[in-house]
């Protein structure tokens, strides 16, 4: 890894926990489409077989899976945006402080 990349990545170290949670949410939300496909398959099989006793529960499970996936996606996006804006703000503040320390001749 180059020195510039190491310095850049160092700005994300204080946010490791938040990024870990966001990554866990990403992994969980990646499994949700498979779960919805499985529940949809069960619904189709039950309808073909004429069994309607658990269709309500399966439909509720399907809706819950879709809502959970959406909620996870929204929270994950909010977490990663917050980290990105915080790191960007830190970099801007450091650059501004550095510019203020420079003499007028060096600023040109």
What structural class should be given to the helix and strand makeup?
mainly alpha
| Strand segment count | 0
The major pleated sheet works out as: none
- The helix content, as a percent range, equals over 70%
Oligomer: single chain
- Tally of alpha and pi helices: 4
Order of helices and strands: HHHH
Note the gap between the termini.
32 Å
Shape: rod-shaped
Alpha carbon gyration radius? 24 Å
Q: Any low-confidence stretches, pLDDT <50, length ≥5?
A: none
Strand portion: under 5%
- Mean pLDDT score, rounded? 91
Main traits of this protein?
108 residues, mainly alpha
What report would you give on this structure?
Helices cover 86% and strands 0% of the residues. With 108 residues, the protein is mainly alpha-helical. It is rod-shaped, with a radius of gyration of 24 Å. The mean pLDDT is 91.
Short summary:
The protein is mainly alpha-helical and 108 residues long. Helix content is 86%, strand content 0%.
Topology:
Layout: H1 3-10, H2 16-49, H3 55-101, H4 104-107
Helix pairs in contact: 2-3
């Amino acid at each position: 890894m180059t020195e510039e990349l190491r310095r850049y990545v160092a700005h994300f170290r204080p946010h490791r926990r938040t990024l870990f949670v966001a990554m866990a949410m990403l992994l969980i939300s990646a499994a949700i489409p498979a779960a919805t496909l499985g529940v949809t398959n069960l619904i189709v099989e039950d309808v073909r077989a004429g069994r309607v006793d658990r269709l309500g529960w399966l439909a509720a499970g399907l809706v819950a899976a879709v809502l959970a996936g959406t909620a996870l996606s929204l929270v994950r996006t909010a977490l990663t945006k917050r980290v990105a804006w915080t790191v960007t703000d830190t970099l801007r503040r450091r650059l501004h402080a550095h510019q203020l320390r420079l003499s007028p001749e060096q600023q040109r």
